[in-house]
Amino acid sequence: MTPSSRTRLPRAASPSAAPDRSPESGGSPHVPGSPGPDSPGPALVGRNLVRRVLDRSASSRLMLGWAGVAALMLLSPAPGALPSALLALALAAIVAVIVIAAGGVFAQAEALAHRLGDPYGTLVLTLSIVVIEVVLIAAVMLGPGDHATIARDSVMAVSMIIMNLVLGLCLLVGGIRREAIRVNRTGTSVYLVLLIGLGAMAFAVPTVLGEDGAYAPVQGVAIAAMAVAVYAVFLWRQTGAQAVEFQEVELPAADESAEEPADAADASDTEDSSPGIGATLSRHRAELGLRVLLLVATVLPIVLLSHDMAGLLDEGLDRLGAPIALSGVLIAAIVFTPETLTALRAAAGGEMQRVVNLCHGALVSTLALTIPTVLIIGLATGSPVVLAESPVNLLLLGVTFAVSAVSAAAPRVTAVHGTVHLLLFAVYALALLS
Protein backbone atom coordinates (compact mmCIF):
# COMPACT_ATOMS: atom_id res chain seq x y z
CA MET A 1 0.00 0.00 0.00
CA THR A 2 1.38 3.39 -0.94
CA PRO A 3 1.42 6.27 1.52
CA SER A 4 -1.27 8.03 -0.43
CA SER A 5 -3.70 5.18 0.10
CA ARG A 6 -3.11 4.59 3.80
CA THR A 7 -6.30 4.65 5.86
CA ARG A 8 -6.76 7.57 8.20
CA LEU A 9 -6.50 6.84 11.89
CA PRO A 10 -9.42 8.26 13.86
CA ARG A 11 -8.97 10.83 16.57
CA ALA A 12 -11.23 8.96 18.92
CA ALA A 13 -13.07 5.69 19.14
CA SER A 14 -16.30 5.56 17.21
CA PRO A 15 -19.59 5.19 19.12
CA SER A 16 -19.76 1.58 18.01
CA ALA A 17 -16.37 0.76 19.46
CA ALA A 18 -16.16 -1.01 22.77
CA PRO A 19 -15.43 1.26 25.72
CA ASP A 20 -12.03 1.15 27.34
CA ARG A 21 -11.98 -1.17 30.32
CA SER A 22 -9.20 -2.11 32.63
CA PRO A 23 -7.73 -5.61 32.52
CA GLU A 24 -8.97 -6.22 36.03
CA SER A 25 -12.56 -6.03 34.83
CA GLY A 26 -11.89 -8.48 32.04
CA GLY A 27 -12.31 -5.95 29.27
CA SER A 28 -10.11 -5.31 26.32
CA PRO A 29 -7.32 -2.99 27.41
CA HIS A 30 -7.01 -0.84 24.32
CA VAL A 31 -9.54 1.37 22.59
CA PRO A 32 -9.61 1.21 18.79
CA GLY A 33 -7.66 4.05 17.36
CA SER A 34 -5.73 4.98 20.48
CA PRO A 35 -2.14 4.76 19.28
CA GLY A 36 -0.24 5.79 22.37
CA PRO A 37 0.17 4.68 25.98
CA ASP A 38 -2.92 4.74 28.14
CA SER A 39 -2.25 6.61 31.38
CA PRO A 40 -5.56 7.76 32.83
CA GLY A 41 -5.72 9.09 36.37
CA PRO A 42 -2.97 9.63 38.92
CA ALA A 43 -0.15 7.15 39.38
CA LEU A 44 -0.82 4.44 41.95
CA VAL A 45 1.26 4.56 45.13
CA GLY A 46 1.43 2.90 48.53
CA ARG A 47 -1.40 0.66 49.65
CA ASN A 48 -3.54 1.57 46.66
CA LEU A 49 -0.79 0.30 44.38
CA VAL A 50 -0.43 -3.00 46.26
CA ARG A 51 -4.20 -3.56 46.43
CA ARG A 52 -4.61 -2.80 42.74
CA VAL A 53 -1.75 -4.97 41.51
CA LEU A 54 -1.81 -7.80 44.03
CA ASP A 55 -5.58 -8.30 43.92
CA ARG A 56 -7.47 -11.47 44.82
CA SER A 57 -7.11 -13.02 41.36
CA ALA A 58 -3.36 -12.36 41.12
CA SER A 59 -2.76 -13.60 44.68
CA SER A 60 -4.79 -16.76 44.10
CA ARG A 61 -2.95 -17.65 40.90
CA LEU A 62 0.42 -16.99 42.50
CA MET A 63 -0.35 -19.09 45.59
CA LEU A 64 -1.84 -21.93 43.51
CA GLY A 65 1.27 -22.12 41.36
CA TRP A 66 3.65 -22.32 44.31
CA ALA A 67 1.31 -24.74 46.13
CA GLY A 68 1.53 -27.03 43.11
CA VAL A 69 5.33 -26.87 43.22
CA ALA A 70 5.33 -27.69 46.94
CA ALA A 71 2.94 -30.62 46.45
CA LEU A 72 5.13 -32.15 43.74
CA MET A 73 8.25 -31.75 45.88
CA LEU A 74 6.56 -33.62 48.72
CA LEU A 75 4.94 -36.36 46.64
CA SER A 76 7.65 -36.80 43.96
CA PRO A 77 5.47 -39.06 41.78
CA ALA A 78 7.30 -41.57 39.56
CA PRO A 79 5.38 -41.67 36.24
CA GLY A 80 6.20 -45.32 35.52
CA ALA A 81 4.91 -46.50 38.90
CA LEU A 82 1.55 -44.73 38.76
CA PRO A 83 -1.63 -46.55 37.66
CA SER A 84 -3.13 -45.09 34.49
CA ALA A 85 -5.99 -43.38 36.34
CA LEU A 86 -3.65 -41.66 38.80
CA LEU A 87 -1.26 -40.77 35.98
CA ALA A 88 -4.07 -39.06 34.07
CA LEU A 89 -5.26 -37.29 37.24
CA ALA A 90 -1.77 -36.05 38.13
CA LEU A 91 -1.14 -34.84 34.57
CA ALA A 92 -4.51 -33.07 34.45
CA ALA A 93 -3.81 -31.40 37.80
CA ILE A 94 -0.38 -30.14 36.72
CA VAL A 95 -1.70 -28.88 33.38
CA ALA A 96 -4.56 -27.10 35.17
CA VAL A 97 -2.16 -25.38 37.56
CA ILE A 98 0.12 -24.36 34.68
CA VAL A 99 -2.84 -22.97 32.69
CA ILE A 100 -4.10 -21.00 35.70
CA ALA A 101 -0.60 -19.67 36.44
CA ALA A 102 -0.16 -18.78 32.76
CA GLY A 103 -3.42 -16.87 33.01
CA GLY A 104 -1.87 -14.88 35.85
CA VAL A 105 1.17 -14.13 33.71
CA PHE A 106 -1.01 -12.89 30.87
CA ALA A 107 -3.17 -10.86 33.26
CA GLN A 108 -0.08 -8.94 34.37
CA ALA A 109 1.18 -8.69 30.79
CA GLU A 110 -2.21 -7.34 29.71
CA ALA A 111 -2.17 -4.81 32.55
CA LEU A 112 1.26 -3.70 31.36
CA ALA A 113 -0.15 -3.48 27.85
CA HIS A 114 -2.96 -1.29 29.19
CA ARG A 115 -0.41 1.17 30.54
CA LEU A 116 2.05 1.08 27.65
CA GLY A 117 -0.40 1.06 24.73
CA ASP A 118 0.12 -0.53 21.33
CA PRO A 119 2.46 -1.66 19.89
CA TYR A 120 4.48 -1.82 23.14
CA GLY A 121 1.69 -3.51 25.06
CA THR A 122 1.13 -6.23 22.52
CA LEU A 123 4.90 -6.80 22.45
CA VAL A 124 4.84 -7.50 26.21
CA LEU A 125 2.08 -10.06 25.69
CA THR A 126 3.85 -11.86 22.86
CA LEU A 127 7.20 -11.99 24.67
CA SER A 128 5.44 -13.47 27.71
CA ILE A 129 4.15 -16.22 25.44
CA VAL A 130 7.64 -16.92 24.10
CA VAL A 131 9.07 -17.33 27.61
CA ILE A 132 6.42 -19.86 28.67
CA GLU A 133 6.60 -21.69 25.35
CA VAL A 134 10.39 -22.06 25.47
CA VAL A 135 10.20 -23.35 29.06
CA LEU A 136 7.64 -26.03 28.17
CA ILE A 137 9.40 -27.11 24.96
CA ALA A 138 12.78 -27.32 26.68
CA ALA A 139 11.29 -29.36 29.53
CA VAL A 140 9.93 -31.97 27.12
CA MET A 141 12.97 -31.90 24.82
CA LEU A 142 15.43 -32.45 27.68
CA GLY A 143 13.23 -34.97 29.49
CA PRO A 144 13.14 -38.75 29.13
CA GLY A 145 12.45 -40.31 25.75
CA ASP A 146 13.12 -39.21 22.19
CA HIS A 147 11.68 -35.74 21.59
CA ALA A 148 13.77 -34.45 18.71
CA THR A 149 10.63 -33.14 16.96
CA ILE A 150 8.94 -31.46 19.95
CA ALA A 151 9.95 -27.94 18.85
CA ARG A 152 8.69 -28.57 15.33
CA ASP A 153 5.44 -30.12 16.54
CA SER A 154 4.82 -27.37 19.09
CA VAL A 155 5.51 -24.46 16.75
CA MET A 156 3.47 -26.03 13.94
CA ALA A 157 0.59 -26.53 16.37
CA VAL A 158 1.00 -22.92 17.48
CA SER A 159 0.88 -21.82 13.84
CA MET A 160 -2.31 -23.72 13.09
CA ILE A 161 -4.01 -22.74 16.35
CA ILE A 162 -3.19 -19.04 16.03
CA MET A 163 -3.59 -18.52 12.29
CA ASN A 164 -6.61 -20.75 11.77
CA LEU A 165 -8.48 -21.61 14.98
CA VAL A 166 -8.06 -18.37 16.95
CA LEU A 167 -8.00 -16.01 13.96
CA GLY A 168 -10.90 -17.88 12.36
CA LEU A 169 -13.02 -17.59 15.51
CA CYS A 170 -12.14 -13.90 15.84
CA LEU A 171 -13.12 -13.17 12.24
CA LEU A 172 -16.33 -15.15 12.68
CA VAL A 173 -17.28 -13.38 15.92
CA GLY A 174 -16.22 -9.95 14.72
CA GLY A 175 -17.82 -10.41 11.30
CA ILE A 176 -21.16 -11.47 12.76
CA ARG A 177 -21.25 -8.69 15.36
CA ARG A 178 -19.90 -5.94 13.11
CA GLU A 179 -20.99 -7.09 9.63
CA ALA A 180 -17.67 -5.93 8.14
CA ILE A 181 -14.36 -5.20 9.85
CA ARG A 182 -11.05 -3.77 8.74
CA VAL A 183 -7.41 -4.22 9.56
CA ASN A 184 -4.45 -1.96 8.96
CA ARG A 185 -3.34 -3.51 5.69
CA THR A 186 0.21 -2.16 5.74
CA GLY A 187 0.96 -3.50 9.21
CA THR A 188 -0.74 -6.82 8.51
CA SER A 189 1.29 -7.27 5.33
CA VAL A 190 4.48 -6.71 7.35
CA TYR A 191 3.46 -9.52 9.69
CA LEU A 192 2.68 -11.86 6.80
CA VAL A 193 5.96 -11.20 5.01
CA LEU A 194 7.80 -12.03 8.23
CA LEU A 195 5.71 -15.17 8.79
CA ILE A 196 6.33 -16.50 5.30
CA GLY A 197 10.08 -15.93 5.46
CA LEU A 198 10.57 -17.18 9.03
CA GLY A 199 8.19 -20.09 8.49
CA ALA A 200 10.15 -21.22 5.46
CA MET A 201 13.42 -21.04 7.41
CA ALA A 202 11.90 -23.05 10.25
CA PHE A 203 10.01 -25.81 8.43
CA ALA A 204 10.85 -25.93 4.71
CA VAL A 205 14.57 -25.14 4.38
CA PRO A 206 15.70 -27.97 6.74
CA THR A 207 14.16 -30.52 4.37
CA VAL A 208 16.71 -29.64 1.67
CA LEU A 209 19.55 -27.89 3.50
CA GLY A 210 19.76 -29.87 6.71
CA GLU A 211 20.64 -33.47 7.46
CA ASP A 212 17.82 -35.84 8.49
CA GLY A 213 15.54 -32.82 8.88
CA ALA A 214 17.87 -30.97 11.28
CA TYR A 215 20.27 -28.09 10.70
CA ALA A 216 23.98 -28.73 11.11
CA PRO A 217 25.45 -26.85 14.10
CA VAL A 218 26.92 -24.05 11.98
CA GLN A 219 23.73 -23.76 9.98
CA GLY A 220 21.61 -23.66 13.14
CA VAL A 221 23.66 -20.84 14.65
CA ALA A 222 23.50 -18.86 11.39
CA ILE A 223 19.74 -19.37 11.04
CA ALA A 224 19.16 -18.39 14.69
CA ALA A 225 21.28 -15.24 14.33
CA MET A 226 19.52 -14.17 11.11
CA ALA A 227 16.06 -14.76 12.58
CA VAL A 228 16.83 -12.71 15.69
CA ALA A 229 18.38 -9.94 13.56
CA VAL A 230 15.28 -9.71 11.36
CA TYR A 231 13.08 -9.62 14.45
CA ALA A 232 15.21 -6.85 15.96
CA VAL A 233 14.74 -4.73 12.81
CA PHE A 234 11.01 -5.44 12.94
CA LEU A 235 10.78 -4.28 16.57
CA TRP A 236 12.83 -1.18 15.81
CA ARG A 237 10.42 -0.18 13.04
CA GLN A 238 7.24 -1.33 14.80
CA THR A 239 7.96 0.74 17.91
CA GLY A 240 9.36 3.65 15.92
CA ALA A 241 8.69 5.06 12.48
CA GLN A 242 6.08 2.45 11.53
CA ALA A 243 4.17 2.31 14.83
CA VAL A 244 1.11 3.93 13.27
CA GLU A 245 0.80 1.00 10.85
CA PHE A 246 0.00 -1.38 13.71
CA GLN A 247 -2.84 0.65 15.20
CA GLU A 248 -6.58 0.43 14.69
CA VAL A 249 -8.27 1.82 11.61
CA GLU A 250 -11.97 2.54 11.29
CA LEU A 251 -14.46 3.08 8.55
CA PRO A 252 -15.11 6.81 8.03
CA ALA A 253 -18.37 7.76 9.71
CA ALA A 254 -19.74 9.62 6.70
CA ASP A 255 -19.33 6.82 4.16
CA GLU A 256 -18.30 3.42 5.42
CA SER A 257 -17.59 2.15 1.91
CA ALA A 258 -15.09 4.89 1.14
CA GLU A 259 -11.41 4.96 1.86
CA GLU A 260 -9.86 8.30 2.67
CA PRO A 261 -6.23 9.14 2.00
CA ALA A 262 -4.09 9.43 5.08
CA ASP A 263 -3.61 12.89 6.47
CA ALA A 264 -0.15 13.19 7.92
CA ALA A 265 -1.14 16.14 10.08
CA ASP A 266 -4.11 14.29 11.54
CA ALA A 267 -1.98 11.24 12.32
CA SER A 268 0.59 13.47 13.96
CA ASP A 269 -2.08 15.21 16.04
CA THR A 270 -3.47 11.85 17.13
CA GLU A 271 -0.07 10.64 18.26
CA ASP A 272 0.75 13.90 20.03
CA SER A 273 -2.51 13.78 22.00
CA SER A 274 -1.32 10.69 23.89
CA PRO A 275 1.50 10.65 26.43
CA GLY A 276 4.80 9.31 25.14
CA ILE A 277 6.26 6.01 26.26
CA GLY A 278 8.98 7.78 28.24
CA ALA A 279 6.44 9.83 30.20
CA THR A 280 4.39 6.72 30.91
CA LEU A 281 7.41 4.80 32.21
CA SER A 282 8.36 7.69 34.46
CA ARG A 283 4.88 8.36 35.79
CA HIS A 284 3.91 4.75 36.47
CA ARG A 285 7.37 3.42 37.34
CA ALA A 286 6.27 1.87 40.66
CA GLU A 287 3.24 0.10 39.18
CA LEU A 288 5.13 -1.20 36.15
CA GLY A 289 7.99 -2.50 38.32
CA LEU A 290 5.65 -4.28 40.73
CA ARG A 291 3.72 -5.89 37.88
CA VAL A 292 6.95 -7.12 36.30
CA LEU A 293 8.04 -8.67 39.61
CA LEU A 294 4.65 -10.34 40.01
CA LEU A 295 4.82 -11.59 36.44
CA VAL A 296 8.23 -13.20 37.09
CA ALA A 297 7.03 -14.71 40.37
CA THR A 298 4.08 -16.27 38.54
CA VAL A 299 6.25 -17.62 35.72
CA LEU A 300 8.64 -19.46 38.06
CA PRO A 301 6.10 -22.14 39.14
CA ILE A 302 5.47 -22.87 35.46
CA VAL A 303 9.20 -23.43 34.98
CA LEU A 304 9.37 -25.79 37.95
CA LEU A 305 6.18 -27.70 37.11
CA SER A 306 7.06 -28.19 33.45
CA HIS A 307 9.67 -30.87 34.21
CA ASP A 308 7.14 -33.08 36.02
CA MET A 309 4.57 -32.42 33.32
CA ALA A 310 7.00 -33.59 30.65
CA GLY A 311 7.64 -36.92 32.39
CA LEU A 312 3.95 -37.63 32.99
CA LEU A 313 3.04 -36.60 29.45
CA ASP A 314 5.68 -38.84 27.91
CA GLU A 315 4.50 -41.84 29.96
CA GLY A 316 0.86 -41.14 29.16
CA LEU A 317 1.38 -40.93 25.41
CA ASP A 318 3.43 -44.13 25.48
CA ARG A 319 0.65 -46.02 27.25
CA LEU A 320 -1.99 -44.69 24.84
CA GLY A 321 0.13 -45.24 21.74
CA ALA A 322 -0.77 -41.69 20.71
CA PRO A 323 1.32 -39.68 18.22
CA ILE A 324 4.13 -37.73 19.86
CA ALA A 325 2.92 -34.62 18.01
CA LEU A 326 0.10 -34.37 20.56
CA SER A 327 2.72 -33.15 23.05
CA GLY A 328 3.21 -30.12 20.84
CA VAL A 329 -0.53 -29.53 20.59
CA LEU A 330 -0.85 -29.64 24.39
CA ILE A 331 1.98 -27.14 24.83
CA ALA A 332 0.42 -24.83 22.25
CA ALA A 333 -2.98 -25.09 23.94
CA ILE A 334 -1.49 -24.31 27.37
CA VAL A 335 0.40 -21.30 26.07
CA PHE A 336 -2.34 -19.71 23.98
CA THR A 337 -5.51 -20.36 25.98
CA PRO A 338 -5.33 -17.00 27.87
CA GLU A 339 -4.41 -15.03 24.76
CA THR A 340 -7.21 -16.70 22.81
CA LEU A 341 -9.71 -15.26 25.29
CA THR A 342 -8.08 -11.82 24.97
CA ALA A 343 -8.24 -11.98 21.17
CA LEU A 344 -11.91 -13.04 21.21
CA ARG A 345 -12.80 -10.14 23.49
CA ALA A 346 -10.97 -7.76 21.18
CA ALA A 347 -12.80 -9.19 18.14
CA ALA A 348 -16.18 -8.83 19.87
CA GLY A 349 -15.33 -5.18 20.56
CA GLY A 350 -14.36 -4.53 16.94
CA GLU A 351 -10.62 -4.17 17.67
CA MET A 352 -9.52 -6.21 14.68
CA GLN A 353 -6.04 -4.76 14.39
CA ARG A 354 -5.45 -5.71 18.02
CA VAL A 355 -6.46 -9.26 17.10
CA VAL A 356 -3.93 -9.18 14.26
CA ASN A 357 -1.25 -7.79 16.58
CA LEU A 358 -1.94 -10.53 19.12
CA CYS A 359 -2.18 -13.45 16.70
CA HIS A 360 0.34 -12.53 14.03
CA GLY A 361 2.68 -10.89 16.52
CA ALA A 362 2.68 -13.97 18.75
CA LEU A 363 3.54 -16.26 15.84
CA VAL A 364 6.27 -13.93 14.55
CA SER A 365 7.80 -13.96 18.04
CA THR A 366 7.54 -17.74 18.19
CA LEU A 367 9.28 -18.25 14.85
CA ALA A 368 11.89 -15.53 15.43
CA LEU A 369 12.70 -16.23 19.08
CA THR A 370 11.45 -19.67 20.14
CA ILE A 371 13.00 -21.56 17.22
CA PRO A 372 16.44 -19.88 17.60
CA THR A 373 16.38 -20.43 21.38
CA VAL A 374 15.55 -24.11 20.97
CA LEU A 375 18.31 -24.48 18.35
CA ILE A 376 20.84 -22.99 20.78
CA ILE A 377 19.58 -25.20 23.64
CA GLY A 378 19.89 -28.25 21.40
CA LEU A 379 23.41 -27.28 20.40
CA ALA A 380 24.45 -26.62 24.01
CA THR A 381 23.01 -29.90 25.33
CA GLY A 382 23.76 -32.11 22.34
CA SER A 383 20.04 -32.78 21.81
CA PRO A 384 18.92 -33.11 18.17
CA VAL A 385 16.35 -30.59 16.96
CA VAL A 386 14.42 -31.85 13.92
CA LEU A 387 12.48 -29.05 12.23
CA ALA A 388 11.70 -30.41 8.74
CA GLU A 389 7.93 -30.74 8.37
CA SER A 390 5.80 -33.29 6.56
CA PRO A 391 4.49 -32.41 3.07
CA VAL A 392 0.88 -32.18 4.26
CA ASN A 393 1.73 -29.72 7.05
CA LEU A 394 3.88 -27.63 4.72
CA LEU A 395 0.97 -27.50 2.28
CA LEU A 396 -1.47 -26.48 5.00
CA LEU A 397 0.90 -23.81 6.29
CA GLY A 398 1.37 -22.40 2.78
CA VAL A 399 -2.38 -22.33 2.13
CA THR A 400 -2.92 -20.67 5.51
CA PHE A 401 -0.49 -17.88 4.69
CA ALA A 402 -2.04 -17.46 1.24
CA VAL A 403 -5.57 -17.20 2.66
CA SER A 404 -4.33 -14.72 5.30
CA ALA A 405 -2.66 -12.58 2.63
CA VAL A 406 -5.78 -12.50 0.46
CA SER A 407 -7.94 -11.60 3.48
CA ALA A 408 -5.57 -8.83 4.57
CA ALA A 409 -5.54 -7.34 1.07
CA ALA A 410 -9.33 -6.97 1.02
CA PRO A 411 -10.89 -3.60 1.98
CA ARG A 412 -12.99 -5.50 4.52
CA VAL A 413 -12.89 -8.91 6.13
CA THR A 414 -16.04 -10.79 7.03
CA ALA A 415 -17.25 -13.89 8.84
CA VAL A 416 -16.80 -15.90 5.63
CA HIS A 417 -13.05 -15.37 5.80
CA GLY A 418 -13.15 -16.81 9.30
CA THR A 419 -14.93 -19.98 8.22
CA VAL A 420 -12.15 -20.76 5.73
CA HIS A 421 -9.53 -20.47 8.47
CA LEU A 422 -11.60 -22.81 10.66
CA LEU A 423 -11.81 -25.26 7.76
CA LEU A 424 -8.01 -25.31 7.47
CA PHE A 425 -7.66 -26.00 11.19
CA ALA A 426 -10.10 -28.90 10.92
CA VAL A 427 -8.01 -30.39 8.10
CA TYR A 428 -4.86 -29.99 10.25
CA ALA A 429 -6.54 -31.82 13.13
CA LEU A 430 -7.61 -34.59 10.75
CA ALA A 431 -4.06 -34.95 9.40
CA LEU A 432 -2.65 -34.96 12.94
CA LEU A 433 -4.83 -37.86 14.03
CA SER A 434 -4.55 -39.86 10.80
From TrEMBL:
Task: Give the membrane topology.
Answer: Multi-pass membrane protein
Q: Where in the cell is it found?
A: Membrane
- Region of interest (Disordered), residue spans: 1-42, 255-278
Q: Organism, per UniProt?
A: Brachybacterium paraconglomeratum
Asked whether the keyword Transmembrane helix is assigned, the reply is yes
Q: Where are stretches of biased composition, namely Low complexity?
A: 1-31
Provide the protein name: Calcium:proton antiporter
Identify a single GO molecular function assigned to this protein. Answer: potassium:proton antiporter activity
Instruction: Could you list this entry's UniProt keywords, alphabetically sorted.
Output: Membrane, Transmembrane, Transmembrane helix
Signal sequence: where?
A: none
Q: Which GO terms describe its cellular component?
A: plasma membrane
Looking at the UniProt entry, the stretches that span the membrane are 62-79, 85-107, 119-142, 154-176, 188-209, 215-236, 288-307, 319-337, 358-380, 392-410, 415-433
Q: Which residues form the Sodium/calcium exchanger membrane region domain?
A: 88-239, 292-432
InterPro entries noted in UniProt? Alkaline_pH_Ca-Antiporter, NaCa_Exmemb
- Kindly give the Pfam families that the UniProt entry links to this protein: Na_Ca_ex
Q: Where is the composition biased (Acidic residues)?
A: 256-272
